[in-house]
TrEMBL record, chain A:
Location within or outside the cell: Cell membrane
GO MF term set: transmembrane transporter activity
Name of the protein in its database record: Iron complex transport system permease protein
Similarity comment: Belongs to the binding-protein-dependent transport system permease family. FecCD subfamily.
Positions of region (Disordered): 1-26
Primary localisation category: membrane
Membrane association type: Multi-pass membrane protein
Keywords in alphabetical order: Cell membrane, Membrane, Transmembrane, Transmembrane helix, Transport
Automatic annotation (TrEMBL), chain B:
One GO term of the biological process aspect: siderophore-iron import into cell
Name by which UniProt lists this protein: Iron complex transport system permease protein
Parts forming coiled coils: none
Statement: the UniProt record of this protein carries the keyword Transport: yes
UniProt keyword terms in alphabetical order: Cell membrane, Membrane, Transmembrane, Transmembrane helix, Transport
Organism the protein comes from: Actinacidiphila paucisporea
Domain of life: Bacteria
Database matches in Pfam families: FecCD
InterPro entries the UniProt entry points to: ABC_BtuC-like, ABC_transptr_permease_BtuC
From TrEMBL, chain C:
Protein name: Iron complex transport system ATP-binding protein
Pfam families: ABC_tran
UniProt keyword Transport present: yes
Membrane topology: Peripheral membrane protein
Gene Ontology MF annotations: ATP binding; ATP hydrolysis activity
Length: 355, 351, 295
């Protein structure tokens, strides 16, 4: 940083932060425009999700079915099948993306993913246990079981991973250990209890196909609270990204932030997993992509992740319906087949910026 | 011969120093203990089943003094299964250690970076699309594992392979392959699907000598290759530059190691299906048991063998009359043990 | 090779770069650069950030293969020699090394013996002696059973130097050995290097950031800018105000170091006021760690 002797800069310039690309206001405008475009994309995908399927519905009929319900065949398909499915995809996609982004920021680990840290396995194990040992049969109770399981695992992994002194590797190891344990438990129960196996089969597929409005209504409050919590912690998460000591120096309250974020992740993942089974890849990939676009600011990452994750999830779902018509591919399969190569390409280009 | 002692190691030397062998006491003791445990458990496992045989009788039969009935049960039915368990465990443990060392990351195990899924995809393709025999399924598994291994390595290559990138690319590949596997399962007819599910879970049921020999051959060739790379591999954990400065051809060591480890994983998977978590947990457990810096190959192999035999015992006993595939028990056992280790480690303040 | 007389018939130094073009991917750092490392010298390479000094060192240490030209060790292309044989002749202290979790100091230093070991020669009496001597020479002998992750930055750097010493090579390359160390440890490390050079007659090549330290310790100085050698020779002969301005773009005076008699570079004050001087010094200190990280 030796400056040319001929033109000494004023001391203030030396002390100032290095200039970003363009003025901050311009950058924010660009980010805002990007977010708007992403939202437009999401709307288009959502409309496609309502219109496309085993039976295609023209757009004017879609409009008609949504807003002037008259009980025609198309209207029924829209109201009873496509709309709930689309809503569920929107909500679950957003939840998984936001939870992934929050998890990666909290653990300062770009590999952190609710699936990798065992949260999904916890939800699944709790549901299996409930079905087999407590005789739970109603899908309404699954949500509570899944939430409890997810919460228990979050706390356990965080505690074993070293809580305050948690390192990314330790957290990942703890998550893997818990996942191993719980998957073993789930399989053991299912293999010895055929009733549980039968019930779980429908739940464990990772699909939007069985969506109904009751499910949507059931999980909506959890997701809403979780998303609000996550958004509220964006600012302290930005501070935490700089390291614990720096964050403390900046006045962030570490412990309470961590608890809030864990609560948000638990709510989001638990409810999403309860509704349509474990869909793992989205929470890992979308935040990666988003960080490449927005930079490391959580205040932008979270909304972007919330909009782009459902684009991926719903888009995959629509594609799954198109590819093998009149049958359909489960959304989890399509997500991975699209997301995997994209993810590898990103890794190769070195765009997976470390936190 | 002279013996010298430094902290924790025993050294054996000839008088003029032409030959010197070094042994870490704790690692050696741990390895011996693991071997004893694995063999004991193996003997118990041979005696376990519908027709129970006492361990003493098992030993008598193995040395050729059993009744004809026991002889048949032990030699033809049970022994191959136990030998497969020992070999598969050892192969997965050692391959896992090799991968984790190359990736410099405990998550860089074949489970996480997709070779297990690759083998499974190969086997499922043969089962579902080609309706092949069990030999063809095994061949499919080996081919799938190899292809995946090479693809992941090639995709992670950018002026050399960096451990972190290898893990990330592997996770991506793993997700794609898992999706392909679910698709194959959905597409399969009922009979094929049942066969595929059993294969995917990883099971030791009904293994006979035909499965033992190829696996034994693979282990006999590949394990010495890996062990030969061991010292150089340990140095690469200090960073590529530091290792190269000490005379290690880093990329060559890495490629040899990955190739041997992929083949070992594929051979094990062909014999018993993709048994989960052994490759991930065994090296970490062995490392903590021997208190060695970094993962080490031989203790990891012994730990893998011990884990798998114990898991098979658990799988046959713990769930009452309904036996579960061994892959279920490896997850339970390995996961619980790793969790316990992480907890105690934390309490003792070691990260 | 270690026993070969360095005074070969050609009269050439043991280690030299012959018209090497170096770079990463398609980015060229140096073009047709030729450098001789005088035998038994303590050669220090200096220059502003991104001038190619670390790149040159990596090439000399055969970590970076030249796109064109050759690096010669004892008259032979270094890349064609067996890796272990090179490692018995040429040691390197890289800029970034990772100590494996939980490794002890003695075990880490012992790893420096790798090029001397084999399947049947795993831990000879000589290995044991050399490791003990290396730890004594760097003052880490009393830390032998401590874990490397528990040590301070200065101690850790000395442990890494001990590992490089345990290689017992007549040539030793050090890539910014004083980075991240406080002034006391910087001097410790440089005194240690000077001692190694004087006592053993080792040839040392180091990349350093501090021009005054380079002037004080080096017997041979190479000043680089934009991938070219601007000047080389004994510090007292080549360090002039004109050279410093040409290489670093800093106006300065060169006076005699009252302690050692070597040249001392004193940058010209930009502002006569004390306040301005204070700000400049603080900002320079603040940018230092970030700047030293650049390749």
């Amino acid at each position: 940083m030796l400056v040319d002797h001929g033109s000494p800069p004023p001391p203030a310039a030396l002390a100032a932060a290095p200039p970003a690309h363009g003025s901050p206001a311009r950058r924010n405008a660009a980010r805002g425009a990007g977010l708007l475009a992403a939202t437009g994309l999401l709307l288009a995908v959502a409309v496609a999700s309502i219109a496309v399927g085993a039976k295609d519905i023209p757009l004017d009929q879609v409009w008609h079915g949504l807003f002037h319900y008259a009980g025609t065949d198309d209207d029924v398909v829209i109201r009873k099948l496509r709309l709930p499915r689309t809503l569920l995809g929107l909500m679950v996609g957003a939840a998984l993306g936001v939870a992934g982004a929050a998890m990666q920021a909290l653990t300062r680990n770009p590999l952190a993913d609710p699936g990798l840290l065992g949260v999904n396995a916890g939800a699944a194990a709790a549901v299996v246990t409930g079905i087999s040992f407590l005789g739970v049969t109603s899908p309404g109770a699954y949500v509570w079981l899944a939430l409890a399981g997810a919460a228990a695992v979050s706390v356990l992994v965080y505690a074993v991973g070293g809580s305050r002194s948690a390192t990314p590797v330790r957290l990942a190891l703890a998550g893997t250990a818990v996942t191993a344990l719980l998957q073993g438990w789930s399989s053991a129960v299912q293999l010895t209890d055929s009733v549980a196996l039968d019930r779980m089969r429908f739940w464990q597929v990772g699909s939007l196909a069985s969506a109904d409005l009751a499910t949507v209504r059931r999980i909506a409050p959890f997701l809403l609270v979780g998303a609000l919590l996550a958004l509220a912690t964006a600012r302290p998460l930005n501070a935490i990204a700089l390291g614990d000591d720096t964050a403390r120096g900046l006045g962030a309250r570490l412990t309470s932030t961590r608890i809030l974020v864990m609560a948000a992740i638990t709510l989001l993942c638990g409810a999403a997993t309860a509704a349509c089974g474990p869909i793992v890849f989205i929470g890992l990939m979308v935040p990666h992509v988003v960080r490449g676009v927005t930079g490391p600011d959580m205040r932008w990452i979270l909304p972007y992740a919330a909009v782009l994750s459902p684009v991926l999830l719903l888009g995959s779902d629509v594609l799954g319906r198109l590819l093998t018509r009149p049958a359909e591919l489960q959304v989890g399969i399509v997500t991975a087949v699209i997301g995997g190569p994209a993810f590898i390409a990103l890794v190769r280009r070195g765009r997976t910026a470390q936190l | 011969m002279s013996r010298a002692r430094t902290a924790g190691t025993a050294v054996l030397r000839t008088a003029r120093g032409g030959l010197s062998l070094r042994l870490d006491r704790r690692a050696a003791a741990a390895a011996a203990g693991l071997l004893a445990l694995a063999l004991t458990a193996a003997v118990v496992l041979v005696g376990t089943g519908d027709y129970a045989i006492a361990p003493a009788d098992v030993l008598r039969t193995l040395t050729g003094h059993g009744t004809p009935g026991q002889d048949f049960v032990v030699r033809q039915l049970r022994l191959p299964r136990v030998v497969v368990a020992l070999l598969v465990g050892a192969a997965l443990g050692m391959a896992g250690a090799a991968f984790q060392s190359v990736a410099r990351n405990p998550l860089g195990s074949p489970d996480v970076i997709g070779f297990g899924q690759g083998s499974a995809a190969g086997a499922l393709t043969v089962i579902v699309l080609l309706h092949g025999s069990s030999y063809e399924v095994a061949a499919g598994a080996v081919a799938g594992g190899l292809l995946t291994g090479l693809a992941v390595y090639a995709l992670a290559w950018r002026r050399g392979v960096q451990g972190y990138r290898l893990v990330l690319v592997g996770i991506g590949a793993s997700a794609v392959l898992a999706a392909a596997n679910s698709y194959l399962l959905v597409k399969a007819n009922f009979v094929d699907a049942a066969r595929a599910v059993v294969w995917i879970t990883g099971s030791l049921d009904g293994r006979d000598w035909d499965e033992v020999w190829p696996l034994l051959a693979a282990c006999a060739v590949l394990m010495p290759v890996l062990l030969g790379q061991g010292p150089a591999l340990r140095l690469t954990e200090m960073g590529d530059d530091a290792a190269a400065a000490l005379g290690v051809r880093v990329e060559r060591v890495r490629l040899t190691t990955v190739l041997a480890a992929v083949l070992l994983t594929a051979a094990a998977t062909a014999a018993a299906g993709p048994i989960a978590f052994i490759a991930l947990t065994a090296p970490q457990l062995a490392r903590r048991l021997t208190r060695s810096p970094g993962v080490s190959l031989l203790p990891s192999a012994l730990m893998g063998a011990t884990l798998l035999v114990l898991a098979d015992l658990t799988a046959q006993h713990a769930f009452g009359p309904a036996q579960v595939p061994v892959g279920v028990a490896t997850g339970l056992l390995g996961g619980a043990y790793l969790l316990w280790l992480l907890t105690t480690e934390r309490r003792s303040g070691r990260i | 090779m270690t026993t070969r007389n360095d005074d070969t018939s050609t009269g050439r130094p043991r280690l030299r770069a012959d018209a090497v073009t170096l770079g990463y991917d398609r980015r060229v750092i140096t073009e047709k650069l030729s450098v001789d490392i005088p035998d038994h010298s303590f050669t220090v390479v200096v220059g502003p950030n991104a001038c190619g000094k670390s790149t040159l060192l990596r090439a000399l240490a055969r970590l970076l293969k030249p796109a064109q030209g050759r690096v010669l060790l004892d008259g032979r292309t270094i890349g064609s020699l067996p890796a272990k044989a090179v490692a018995r002749t040429l040691g390197l202290l890289p800029q970034t090394s990772v100590a494996p979790d939980g490794i002890t100091v003695a075990a880490l230093v012992a790893r420096g013996r790798y090029p001397h070991q084999g399947l049947l020669r795993q831990w000879s009496v000589e290995d044991e002696q050399v490791v003990a001597e290396s730890m004594a020479a760097t003052g880490v002998a009393e830390l032998a059973d401590r874990q490397v992750d528990e040590l301070s930055g200065g101690q850790r750097q000395r442990v890494w130097i001990a590992m490089a010493l345990a290689q017992r090579t007549p040539l030793l390359l050090l890539d910014e050995p004083t980075t991240y160390l406080d002034i006391q440890h910087q001097i410790d490390v440089l005194d240690l290097c000077a001692g190694l050079h004087e006592e053993g007659g080792r040839t040392l090549v180091a990349v350093l950031h501090d021009l005054n330290q380079a002037a004080r310790y080096a017997t041979h100085l190479i000043a680089m800018r934009d991938g070219r050698v601007e000047a080389e020779g004994p510090p007292a002969e080549i360090i002039t105000a004109e050279l410093v301005e040409r290489v670093f773009g800093v106006r300065c005076r060169v006076i005699e170091d009252p302690e050692s008699g070597t040249p001392l570079v004193v940058p010209a004050a930009r502002r006569p006021r004390t306040a301005a001087a204070g700000v400049t010094a603080a900002s320079a200190a603040a940018t230092r760690p970030a700047a030293t990280r650049a390749p």
